[in-house]
Design brief:
The complex is a heterodimer. Chain A is mostly helical. Chain A has 15 helices and no strands. Chain A has a single domain, classed as Amino acid/polyamine transporter I, CATH 1.20.1740.10. The longest helix of chain A has 34 residues. In chain A, 51% of the residues are buried. By secondary structure, chain B is α/β, with parallel strands linked by helices. In chain B, the strands form two sheets. In chain B, strands 1, 2, 3, 4, 5, 6, 7, 8 and 9 form a nine-stranded mixed β-sheet that branches. In chain B, strands 10, 11, 12, 13 and 14 form a five-stranded mixed β-sheet that branches. Chain B is built from 14 helices and 14 strands. The chains are: A mainly alpha, B alpha/beta.
C-alpha cells in the first residue's frame, strides 16, 4: 500500500509556491511599491525578504515539530479552542478578502488590456469558474497542474525579462536610493505581507509527503520567488525610468506590450495565455485554502463542496468596487497594513506557545 | 459506465471550444481598417485635425493583383485621438484600429503649442497605441505631408515608414527616440527629447553648405520623383517643441549620447593637406564615451572623452599617407569635431537651456536619492556648467586601395 498516494511531493509543492507568488509581480503589487519608494523598489524587496525570513523560520520550526498535523490543528492545540477559532477566522477573512481584491484586479487587467468589449461579469465568471473547478478537484490536481506548467511559465517569464534587460538602460536605476532610505525601511517593513501567504502554506502540510518536503519546499520557493521579484522590479525600472513607472497601472503588461521578439511586434498575445494559466492556478489554490479554512472553522469535513459557494460569493463581492484601478489599490494597501502584523506576530506567538508547552522537546 | 464518463468528458471539452471564439471581442481581420500613420494638426479652439493613413491590406496578397489604391488618407477635426476612431467611421466603412500603427506624425505648428502635451497623453490611454512607436515632426501640415508624400517604389506605405526611419537612423540623420522617451524624458524633467524632422516642401534651389549634412529637412536639393526628406531633429523641452537640430548636429548628438545607438556614419572633413578638397570618412563608435562629472566646485564641470574610429574613404588631394601625415590628419579631424561639438554644446546651453545628450542619466549616479537629484535641478544648472570635450580619433583603413598615384607624374 502506497501511503504517499494523493499527497504532494517536493516539486508540486514548489511549483505551487512559485506560481502563486510569482504571479504577484504581474499585477499591481509592484505598482504599490513604486508609488512609495520610486526606483528603490527592488531594494525594498531585498529588505522585505530579509525581514520575512524570521517569521517563516519560526513558523516552519513550529510546524515541523508536529507530525501529521496541519496549521489548523496546531493553532487549536497551542492557542486553545476560543482564541484558536478567532485566529483562524481572521486568517480566513483576510484570505477571502485578498481573493476578492486580487480577482477583481485580474479581471480589470484582462478587461483594460486585452478584452475591452467583454462585460466584466463574464470575464469574472470564467476566471473564477475555472479556478473553482481546479479547487474543487483538490490539491493534488492543483499541484500537478502547477508542476506541468511551471517550466513553460518560467520560460515565458525569462524571455520577457531577457528582452526587457536588453531594451532597458541600467542607468535608469539611479539615484539608487529612490525616495530615500527612510521610505525604504518604512515600506519594506509594512509591506512584508507580500510574503504573507507563506502562512497559508502551513495549512496544507498534511497533504505533503513529509515535513521534510515542507521545509525544503518553503525555503527553495522563498529563495526563488525573492530572486525573480528583485529581477522583475529591476527590469521594469530600467525599461520605463523612475518617474514614468509610477504612472503605469500594470508594469508587467506594459512591458510585454513594449518589447519585441525580433520581427514579431505584437507579442503580448503570445504571453497572455501563459499569464492566464498562472492566474488560474493561483486562484485555484487560494479558493482551496479559503474553503479549507472555512471547513476547519465550522467542522465541515467535505470542505471541497464549499468551493462553488465561496466562488459565487467572491464574484459578487468583487464586482462591487467602482473604478477598480484606483479603489483596489487603496483596498490593497489597507489589507497590507492589516495582514503585515499578522504575518509578523502570529508565527512569533505560535513559537512562544510551543516553547512553553514544550513541543520542541519531544 | 466508463463509456458514459468518457462521453461526458468529451462533451464538456467540446463545449469549451465555444469559449475560444471570444464572444464580444471577436473581430475579423478583414473587417478592420488599419491605420498605419496618425497625423495630428492644430485645429480650431481646443480641437485637433487628425489625419489617418489607412493601408489597403489586399495589396500584400500574392495572387490576383487588386486594382484598389494602396492607401487612403482622410482628415477631420476631432477632440482627441481615441474618439476619432468612431468619428472616422462616418466615412470609412470598416472598423478603425490602431493595432498596426507605425508612426505618429505631428505638425511643427502644433508641437510648438504649450497645450501639445495634453494631446500626447491620449497615447498612454489607448491600449492599441504602443510606446515603442516613432513620432515624426513635419515642417508643414501633416495633411499636406501625407498627401504629398508619394514613395514611388514602396507602394506598401507602412513598409515605407519602417524602412526610411530605420535607414535614416542608421545614417545618423535622424534621432532614434521612441514615443516612450517623450514621456520619460518629459516626466523626469532633466533633458531634451529629440524627434525625427521631415518635410515634403523643398526650399527652392536648396541650401548650399560646405559639408553634406549641415542641412535640415527641405534644404537638401534633390531632383526626381521622391520629394520627402527625413533630415535633422525637432527638439522638445518639457513636452513642447522649441527648435530644430540639423543633420550634422543630430549626428553629433548621437555621438555624445550614449543611450542612442550610432551606426556607420559617412561624412566629410576638410583636407588638411589641400584646403580646396574634402576627405570622406566613415565614422564608427567602438568604445563608450567617458563622462566625468564634478559637482563639488561652484561651477559644475563635465569632462567628456569621445573615442571615434574612422576609416578614410576618399582623398581628392591624392595624398598618400605616411605615419607623420596620419598623425597630422588625426589631429585635424579631432580638432574639427571638437570645434563642432563645442558649438553644439554652446547652442544647447544658450538657446535650448537643456541637453539632449543623456548626461542627466549619468549625473543621477552621483546622487543618493531622487530628492537630492531634483534639488540639484539639472535642467536649470546645465546652462551654467563647464563642459570640456575631448575627441580621440583612431584611424583604421584607407579603403580597398590605400596608395594613390602622384598626379603630377600622371599628368606629365
Amino acid at each position: 500500500m502506497d501511503h504517499t498516494k494523493g499527497k504532494l511531493g517536493f516539486r508540486e509543492f514548489l511549483a505551487i509556491i512559485i506560481i502563486t507568488f510569482g504571479t504577484k509581480l504581474t499585477d499591481n503589487t509592484p505598482t504599490g511599491l513604486f508609488n512609495k519608494v520610486g526606483s528603490a523598489a527592488w531594494i525594498t524587496i531585498i529588505l522585505m525578504c530579509l525581514l520575512a525570513i524570521i517569521p517563516i523560520y519560526l513558523l516552519t520550526k513550529v510546524i515541523t515539530a508536529y507530525q501529521d498535523q496541519n496549521l489548523v490543528d496546531i493553532i487549536y492545540h497551542l492557542l486553545g479552542k476560543y482564541v484558536g477559532f478567532f485566529v483562524i477566522f481572521v486568517l480566513w477573512l483576510t484570505e477571502t478578502y485578498s481573493i476578492v481584491l486580487s480577482s477583481s484586479m485580474y479581471t480589470d487587467i484582462i478587461e483594460t488590456m486585452y478584452f475591452v468589449r467583454t462585460p466584466t461579469l463574464y470575464i469574472y465568471i470564467i476566471l473564477i469558474g475555472v479556478a473553482a473547478y481546479g479547487a474543487k478537484k483538490g490539491l493534488e490536481f492543483i499541484g500537478s497542474t502547477a508542476w506541468i506548467t511551471l517550466v513553460g511559465l518560467n520560460l515565458a517569464l525569462f524571455v520577457v525579462l531577457v528582452l526587457t534587460f536588453y531594451l532597458g538602460r541600467l542607468s535608469y536605476l539611479f539615484p539608487i536610493l529612490g525616495n530615500g532610505i527612510g521610505e525604504i525601511i518604512k515600506e519594506g517593513a509594512s509591506n512584508a505581507s507580500i510574503f504573507g501567504e507563506f502562512l497559508y502554506l502551513g495549512f496544507i502540510v498534511t497533504s505533503l509527503r513529509s515535513n521534510n518536503v515542507y521545509r525544503k519546499g518553503i525555503w527553495t520557493g522563498f529563495l526563488y520567488v525573492s530572486f525573480i521579484f528583485i529581477l522583475s522590479l529591476i527590469a521594469y525600472i530600467i525599461l520605463f525610468d523612475y518617474v514614468s513607472i509610477v504612472h503605469l497601472n500594470y508594469p508587467f503588461h506594459e512591458s510585454i506590450r513594449y518589447i519585441q521578439l525580433g520581427f514579431l511586434t505584437n507579442v503580448e498575445s503570445l504571453f497572455l495565455p501563459f499569464w492566464l494559466v498562472a492566474s488560474f492556478i493561483r486562484f485555484s489554490f487560494y479558493l482551496y485554502i479559503s474553503a479549507l479554512l472555512f471547513g476547519a472553522l465550522f467542522k465541515i469535513n467535505q470542505f471541497k463542496y464549499l468551493v462553488p459557494s465561496i466562488a459565487i460569493l467572491i464574484i459578487f463581492l468583487g464586482l462591487i468596487p467602482e473604478a477598480p484601478v484606483f479603489s483596489l489599490i487603496n483596498f490593497r494597501e489597507k489589507l497590507v497594513y492589516i495582514s503585515t502584523p499578522i504575518f509578523y506576530f502570529l508565527p512569533l506567538l505560535l513559537w512562544l506557545m510551543a516553547k512553553r508547552k514544550g513541543v520542541f522537546k519531544k | 459506465m466508463k463509456n458514459q464518463l468518457c462521453l461526458r468528458q468529451f462533451l464538456f471539452l467540446i463545449s469549451m471550444l465555444l469559449m475560444l471564439s471570444g464572444c464580444w471581442d471577436q473581430t475579423n481581420i478583414d473587417k478592420r481598417a488599419y491605420v498605419v500613420a496618425i497625423g495630428i494638426d492644430k485645429g480650431e479652439d481646443n480641437k485637433i485635425n487628425i489625419s489617418y493613413l489607412i493601408t489597403n491590406p489586399e495589396l500584400s496578397k500574392q495572387e490576383g493583383a487588386s486594382s484598389e489604391p494602396a492607401y487612403e488618407i482622410i482628415t477631420f477635426p476631432t477632440n482627441d485621438l481615441i474618439s476619432a476612431k468612431n468619428t472616422a467611421n462616418s466615412v470609412i466603412a470598416k472598423e478603425i484600429t490602431y493595432n498596426m500603427l507605425g508612426v505618429i506624425i505631428v505638425s511643427e505648428e502644433l508641437a510648438k503649442e504649450p497645450e501639445f502635451i495634453r494631446y500626447m497623453y491620449d497615447v498612454t490611454k489607448d491600449r492599441e497605441i504602443k510606446r515603442n512607436k516613432t513620432m515624426i515632426i513635419t515642417k508643414e501640415d501633416v495633411k499636406t505631408f501625407l498627401t504629398e508624400n508619394k514613395p514611388k517604389l514602396e507602394t506598401r506605405v507602412h513598409k515605407y515608414f519602417e524602412f526610411i526611419i530605420e535607414n535614416a537612423k542608421n545614417a545618423g540623420l535622424i534621432p532614434d527616440f521612441k514615443l516612450h522617451s517623450y514621456f520619460s524624458i518629459t516626466e523626469s524633467d532633466a533633458g531634451l527629447f529629440l524627434s525625427p524632422y521631415a518635410t515634403t516642401e523643398q526650399v527652392p534651389g536648396g541650401k548650399y553648405t560646405v559639408g553634406e549634412d549641415e542641412l535640415l529637412a527641405g534644404e537638401l536639393n534633390i531632383e526626381g520623383d521622391s520629394n520627402t526628406q527625413f533630415l535633422g531633429s525637432a527638439v522638445f523641452k518639457e513636452g513642447k517643441m522649441i527648435g530644430t537640430l540639423n543633420g550634422e548636429e543630430t549626428r553629433l548628438t548621437i555621438l555624445l549620447n550614449e543611450t542612442l545607438e550610432m551606426g556607420e556614419i559617412y561624412t566629410t572633413y576638410s583636407d588638411p593637406f589641400n584646403q580646396q578638397y574634402r576627405i570622406s570618412t566613415r565614422m564608427m563608435k567602438r568604445d563608450k564615451n567617458e563622462v566625468k562629472m564634478d559637482f563639488t566646485g561652484y561651477i559644475p564641470v563635465i569632462d567628456v572623452t569621445v573615442p571615434v574610429y574612422t576609416d578614410i574613404l576618399s582623398t581628392h588631394s591624392m595624398e598618400t599617407f605616411d605615419n607623420g601625415k596620419i598623425e597630422q590628419l588625426k589631429l585635424h579631424i579631432e580638432d574639427e569635431i571638437n570645434k563642432k561639438l563645442n558649438n553644439l554644446i554652446k547652442r544647447t546651453q544658450e538657446e535650448f537651456k537643456g541637453e539632449p545628450f543623456g548626461w542627466a542619466l549619468i549625473a543621477r549616479k552621483k546622487f543618493w536619492t531622487r530628492h537630492d537629484f531634483e534639488k540639484f535641478d539639472w535642467m536649470n544648472t546645465y546652462p551654467n556648467m563647464k563642459v570640456n570635450v575631448k575627441v580621440m580619433v583612431t584611424i583604421g583603413t584607407f579603403g580597398e586601395q590605400s596608395k594613390l598615384p602622384d598626379l603630377s607624374e600622371v599628368r606629365d
